[in-house]
Structures are given as structure tokens and as C-alpha cells.
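Limitations
The C-alpha cells in this dataset are predictions for the assembled complex, not deposited experimental models. Users should treat interface geometry with appropriate caution, especially where small molecules or nucleic acid strands are included. An illustrative entry is reproduced here so readers can see what is and is not provided.
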Amino acid sequence: MTATPMRTHRRTTVAILAVGAALVIAPPARAQTVAITGGTVFTVSGERIEHGTVVIVDGRIRAVGSDIVVPEDAERIDATGKWVTPGFVAFGTQLGLVEIGSVGETNEGSRSDDAVTPSFNVLEGINPASQLIPVTRIDGTTTALSVPGGGLVSGQAVLIDLAGDDIETMVIRSPAAMVGSVNRDAKSSAGGSRAAVMDRLRRLFDDAMELDERRGDFARRQMQDLAAPADELEALLPAVRGELPFLITANRRSDIANALRLAAEYELDLVLVGAHEGWQVAEAIAVAGVPVALYPLTDVPTYDAPSARLDNAALLTAAGVRVIIATGDSHGAREVRHAAGNAVAYGMPWETALRALTLEPAMALGIDGDYGSITEGKVANVVVWSGDPFELSTVAEHVFIRGALVSMESRQRQLLERYRTLPPSYFRP
Amino acid sequence: MQRRPTVIISAVLLTLAAAPAAAQDRLPWGPESPPYASTYQRRHYPTVVIRNATILTAAGDEIPNGSIAFGDGKILAVGTAVDEPHGALVIDGTGKFVTPGVIDSHSHLGVYAAPATDAESDGNEYPVKANTAYVWAEHSVWPQDPQIPLAVAGGVTTIQVLPGSANLFGGRSVTLKLVPGRSVQEMKFPGAPYGLKMACGENPKRVYGGRGGPATRMGNMAGYRTAFLEARAYAEDWRAYADKDSKEKPDRDLGKETLAEVLMGAIAVQNHCYRADEMLQMLDLAREFGFGIRSFHHAIEAYKIADRLAAAGAAASVWAGWWGFKEEAMDGIYENAALVTQAGARAVLHSDSEDDIQRLNQWAAKAMYAGQQAGIPVTRNDAIRWITANPAWVLGIDTVTGTLEPGKMADVVVWSGDPFSVYARAEQVYNDGWLVYDRHDPARQFTTDFELGQVTR
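Predicted assembly:
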């Protein structure tokens, strides 16, 4: 037998974009120049621009400002009276991985064969034809971090733009993050105790690093039993070394403290997910410089977070924590902008909430050089809104993904048209 | 005044969609006074006058710079010029909006209480058998559910608590006023009729498919029909006994009593049913047995049969944005409530959720704006009725509450701004004229036992 026990080939999914590589984003199929004129532009990275112009060329933002010369060949979108923002990032959904919640054959988001599956990369589970993708993007969400779920270390999340016929086109980064948990859901994967969860994670992390240092010993079978199969530990390694963001769900104050402790011990690039009781330890989270991805509408008490409250986002923000507004629900991902509005109603500054849907997730995932704001050179994910995007009365009027206008059709809108007058015609119009 | 039971039965059987009879009417099998009766008592509170607010009455009017007066639990006056009773508490409502208290036609607060361990999971009597019409939701309600004050902070004053949807017949619902209390009886809405939870579709067949059935939708239908036939026979046995045609006193059967009271029109059917074709089957079932379906719940596809719902007089309790969590929920659209309203049927925005019950005004807004943006002519009055007057009708309490009209119960919410804005929050909630919640006064925010000892700011 000549092959070493270590698997030497890279998984094809991972090879689509290696960690840390410069982003090569597929341009729109048809190169075009677009100018969005007259709107109030919320760049997020800088000041808002009244009567601003955004010029998009070949999928990237070419220029933004109030005094921009519109190229002659540009298709013009009149945004007078409209609000223009970066497209929103759905952080922590299973968009593309789930079609019908209760129908297992349409779900690709978790591996049930093991609790520790860091090698599980969800990219090839993504279905570009999912009905959820149009439903979500016509409400202004242009990018999604699709995450695996379940277990202790669920696997690798991928970042996709919500347009494209295949994953090669859609993908922004794969893997984009490692996903794990130290909350109540992790307990059953570690024998039933939070303490055991921490112990198992440390053994995994230690063994991943030791394996990396002693590859020769491992090949000669001169190592002790490892905490997980070698290929799983190898997949975990970038996250243990802090080269890949590590999303860890922790809600109770003590769970958050555990996650922070783990991050400090191993220098993880930690992103706290959930953090329902984060407001209680906001200072510690701020000092650790750890961003928090939270769903702002959580206030029903559980033993996982007895003191959840609706002003969590506001209190964390006030303490200097970088907050990402996340949604855990795939079908409801489109509602995230209203969740942001509620966070504002409970004290989060409006501009911070906008940032929490755009630049903060981009920064946490290390793609802020290309995403998250309306800035010259960045990928042109841009939305023209009828008004304040957080308001219930507002609609997305134009959605650009990589500089191309997306169709505002969805299966839901087709249902509306079919049944607008009764009885319906079941023949195509 | 005591009518003979036989008269009740025969009279009601002739009427298809009879209004629920008053719950206190004596039933042939029942004791003199109904068991587990409401012990609700209105709390004393001064007469209140709110001035300079925008008032959405849910009775057709939106009154800018309006005033409302209420005292002794009743609305005294609403309009642009309202007298100030002596000793009234006067509140400046400048910039505020006033609406009726929000009513949720579909809640599981108390029966699926927080912190949501198995110990509080009391909403579904399953998997026992597909017909559990004999259970009463009120016997599961935990008045100390910490979700209750959260709903109150969202402007909710009244809810219908239903058993879960695992069973064809889930059991009796109960209508509660959201006030603190030691027993569910202290919360029971006085005079509110009972409802019967029925469930169509995927849930019963999923739960009982491997447990003796029903395993199919036709099995579901057979289960309803068999049970109603038995209930009809049960009622006839009692009628024969009451008319002295038979000397044999029938044995009481709690489940058949509930179904027989449905056939008599005393209990309103509250039917969990997603798909359009199944709702039409259920309307046929109701026709077969001569009862009315008060409301379909989770009626994801109501918009496909809005004309038929209007003709049948059945309400559709719907979500605005939920969809896709199961196959029968795939066709949910934002415009559902608007299309139902346009067809002349009653639409209700319900929650079925301890989270969304806190923001029913926002869901009504989303449904309204989606309808308007699609060119469907729905008004702000329609939308506020989706969460007030219409659910009041579904619960059979619309003559008592659900609108801001003189004589109605003073269930009143003061909002910080337009309740159809995401930024508006309920600031004051009056239940029966009593200030049960004030956002700016912690002394006016009740807490449950569970919350004691938890970390607060």
C-alpha cells in the first residue's frame, strides 16, 4: 500500500476557491454599464450621499458620489427619491440547502452520521434552482452565508451570491467559515455536559495541531489515537489556526464565556452566533474584539438563555461590540430587514443596523475588500429601495447582483398572478 | 330562563352557520352551571381620556387629533370632541396612535409555555389517538408562562389558546384575557364560547400513520365523519332521554359532548387547514353534518378559494410571511389576507408563535402593504381589523370587544407611532380599562414567577 493514511487530495469543493486567495468573482454574463442616479446613497463605508450617482461597470462599482459623470453608454436607473444601499448579506441561513423544511429529501444542510464533521463542505449541496433564492433576493438580500447545522462541529459554511445557474458562478468563498456550537445543542454530541463539550473541542483542536506537526509519525502509524479521523482534523486545522472564521453558537452567558476562553487559548478567528445573553458580558466581548451575529427578535426565555432581550443588539453596540444581524431561518431570510428595524426600535442606531447587514458580515468573513459597501472597486451588489429598507412599507425596486439587474419574479409572485382573479385559469397566460 | 334542550338541538341543527350560542345555555348532559367557569374580575382603574392621538377604531374610522374616553371597563366616547369626565386621568396622545387591543386567534401561550422543556409541553395530547375532542386546552394553561407578559408588551389583550394540531380533533380551545393571575379561570374571557380545534392534512397523518391511522387524507376525512356520526347519535340518545322517549340515561362522553355542541352551534370550529382543496373538503363536511366552520387557521392557500370562503362565511386566519416549512405550506404568499379581504371574506392575521404574537401589528402591516403594492384595494382599517375585530368575530366576542366604539370593552393600546411602522411599539396597554402594561413605568410591567432570580439590567 503506497498511499499514506493522510488524504492528500484537496476536495474539489475547496479547490474552487482556496482559503485566503484573492476573490475572483464571475462577472455578469453580459458586460454592461449602469448608472443609478438621483438617489440617496448609503455607502455604509462613508457618509450618505444625497442625489448620488453609482456607476457600475462589468459587475463592479466604478464610481460613487454626488458629482459623477455618467458614461454615455450607461443604462440609467432613475433613483430620485429612492434609497440606495449595498445588498444585504443573509448570515447563517441554509439558503440553497433547504427547500421544504419537513421534507428530508430537499435538505442538504447537515450530516447526521457524525457529530464532528469539519470536512463537510456544503457547497455541492447548494441548489441554484431553489425557489427560496428568488424569493429572498427580490427583497434585497443579495448574498448568503449558507451554513451546515447540527452536531458539535457541523462543517464548512460557504458564501454565495444569490444569482447564477451553477455553484461555480454563485460562490464567493468556499469554505467561508467553520461552524460549531457550545450551547445546549452541542451537549448531546459530547456525552451530555457543557464541560464535556469544551473538553472534546480542546482535544480536537490539540490533535489537529499535533497531527500537523507530526505528519511523519502519523504516516508511520506512530501516533496515539486521534480525537477524530485524520481527514476531519486536517479540515479543522485552518479554523484552529485562526485562518478561517470559526462561527460558534453560544447563548447563555456562561457559554459565551466558554467560547471566548476557547478563542483566546487557540487564537481562533471567532464569530459568536446567537449570544442571546451577550448583553450581560458586552464588555468582555468588546475587549476580545469578537463580532456577534445575532437575531434581534429573540426574547422568549429558555434554559439556553433565560435572560434574552430585545435590546441585546443595542446594548452590545453601545459597548463597542461589532454586531451582525443574522437570520437563522432560510424561508424567512427576507424578513431580516424588518428584524433590523426592530433592533433600531429597541435602541440600535440606524446606521449601525445597516452596517450589521452589510459591512459587518463582510468584515467578519474577510471579504470586505470586495463586499459590504458601495465603494469604488467593490462587487456591485446594490439595491434601490422605495424608502427606508427597514420599513414595512418599503420594497426593493431594483436589485443588482454583480452589476446585473435580477428578475423580480418568484414562484410566489406567479401564484399571486394565477389566483388574482377567481376562478383561476390553469393555462399559462 | 331555561329552554328545553330538545329545542336547542333541533333549532340549531336547522341552521348551517349558526352563531355560537351563549356558553352558559344549559346542555342536556351538563350540570346546572358550567364547570371551570371564568372567575375573571375587572380591576379598578380611573377613567382615562387620551387626547390628540390618531385613533384607528377598527370600525371604519381613522381619526386624526382624536380623543377617546373609557372608564369602568367600557369605552365611553371616541371622536374629535370628547367630554372629560370628572376625575379622569388625561393623557396627551400627541404623536401617538390608539387602536383596539390586539387579539390573536391562534396561540399556544400557556400550553406550550417557556422555557419550553418537555415539562411545559402540554399542547398536544399525542400520540394517544387521533380524536381527543375530550381534552380542554384550559386544563393545560400555565398562567405563569413568561411568554404572556411579552405578548402583552406587544399590545395583545385577548388570545384564543388552542390545543396542537397532531390530532383530527385536538380538543377545546379557550379564550383568555392576558392579565396576570393564579389560575386560568381568572383569565378566561367571560362569556366567550368554546372552540374546537380540528386539524387537516399532514400533521394527523404523519403522527398516526404508523399508529393505526389515519395515514392518509381520506383517512382524515373518514375520522371526522365517523366521529360526527357518533356525536349525532349521542345527542339523539340524550334527546330521547330528555323527551322521556327513553328511560335509559346515556353515559356521559366528554369527547362526544364537545362534538355534539359543535353540531348544536354552541362551539365554534377552529380548523387548522393549509391547502385550498382540503378547506373545500372541510366545508363539505360541515355541510354534511350541518355545522359551521368559524375559521380556518394557517390557511396558507385561502387566497385560492377566497370566493368560496366568502360564500361559506368562514374566516381565514393566516400568516403574512410564513411559508415553506412543510409541503402544504409552500404556496404561502404575502398577499393572502388582502386577496381574502378583497373577495369579501374575513381575514385574520394570527401568530401561532410566542415570537410573532409580539408583533402582530407588523405582520398586518406587511400583509397590507404587500396587498396595496399588488394593486389589491385594502385599507388601513382592513389591516387593523385583521388583528382586532376579525379575530374577535372568530372567537365569538365581537359584540363585546375588537373595535373602539362606545359600549365596547375598554381593550385599548397606545402606540408610540403608526402601528404599521416597524419603529412603533406599544406604550400602554389597557385590558378592560385597566393599565396592564406601561413601557415607561417598570412598576406597570408584570413579571412571572419564572423571571424572578434571572439577571436583569
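Some entries come with short summary sentences. For this one: The radius of gyration of chain A is 22 Å.
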